[in-house]
Amino acid sequence: MNSLLRKSALFKNVLVVDENTSMAGAVSVENGLIAGIIPQGARLPKGAAVVIDGSAFGGTPVLMPAFVDLHAHFRDPGFPEKETLESACLAAANGGYGTVVCMANTRPVIDTFEAAARLKKRADDLGLIDLYPALSLTRGMEGASLSGITAAPRGHAARLLSEDGKDVADDALLLAAFNEASRLGVPVSCHCEALGAEGARSAENRGTRRVIDLARRVKGLRCHIAHVSTREALSMIRKAKAEGVSLTCEAAPHHLALTGEDADHLGRGTWGQVNPPLRREDDRRALIRAVLDGTIDAIATDHAPHAGADKEAGAPGFIGLETSFSVCFTELVIKARLPLSRLSGLMSAAPARILGMDDRGIIAPGLRADLIMVDIQAPSTSGPFKSRGRNSPFQGRALTGKVLF
Question: What structural domains does the chain harbor?
Answer without folding.
Answer: 66-361 (3.20.20.140)
